Amino acid sequence: MKAVVFHEHGGIEKLSYQDVPTPRPGPGEVLIKLHAASLNHLDIWVRQGLPGMKLAFPHIGGSDGAGEVAEVGEGVRALEKGQRVVVSPSLSCGECSECLDGRDNLCPDFRLFGLQVPGTYAEYVVAPARSVFPVSGGLSFEQWAAVPLVFLTSWNMLVATGKIEAGETVLIHAAGSGIGSAAIVIAKHLGARVITTAGTDEKLEKAKALGADETINYNKVDFAPRVKQLTGGAGADLVFEHIGPPTWPGNLACLAKGGRMVVCGATGGPHVQLDVRPFYTRQLSITGCYLGTRGDLRCILELVEQGALKPVIDAVFPLKEAAAAQQKMLDRDFFGKLVLQT
After folding, report:
1. Strands 90-91 and 84-87
2. Whether the predicted model's global pTM rises above the 0.90 cut
3. Which of 84, 185, 194, 283 has its CA 20 to 30 A from that of 166?
């Protein structure tokens, strides 16, 4: 099969479109003929190399994929050849207490496609049947591939952890990112008031079209005072945080009393300095989120099927042009998701 691989960490020039062996499904697994895979910033970090990360080279990146079941392994009964499916970004043991309690994202053996195991920048991928979800033909494979990781993480941050309620105000950073655009869609579905940031007016216009109530160009205005102004001095009830050091001070400054911040990433760097006093004087809270559960993903896919949630796609590239797609992501020249046709 064809796949995009890298044989060592480094820049986008390390990505190679080449032939690799087609995987075979074992007991309880299925082989999926992928038709689309979408990019996440994680793909870039994995290619560049993360502290303490050890990969078996050559490595295939990519956590999101959609396609058709090509072959089922022994013991698989819930899926059959030819079904349209979405692949969950994550793998877990399915047997530990966390998995049995429906908290599989806390499994000690929790892994991600494209990180600990070969990913979806390929024509085929093997996955456990429990990590594969049938979907309809109501959306294209490209649209389905744009859903899993960003919608699952956003759902966890806003719903499972952030517990956002209708009428509350949420600040969502980086509206143009895949996760930022997904968060806007989910927050508006839940009836929240959305304030979002971006670095260009063009992206802010697109955020408005998604349903954002208020927008802030962070290259023109300091976002924290503006959030306070837009909320009559009260501040945001929830901050959706995935940037890191550049936004943390402002995030804490514009949180309402009793406000909470949910964190899933650090594209701007891993280290922040904090004044701990606001946490007790204003009773603030910070909670980390890592992806979500299979139950969450099932709920999300149902809402997408119903048209309540819609993925946002900026551009589609052929698989062999994955390097160009990653460069577009690095250049921040996109709004929503970048997708590869496999």
Report:
1. unpaired
2. yes
3. 283
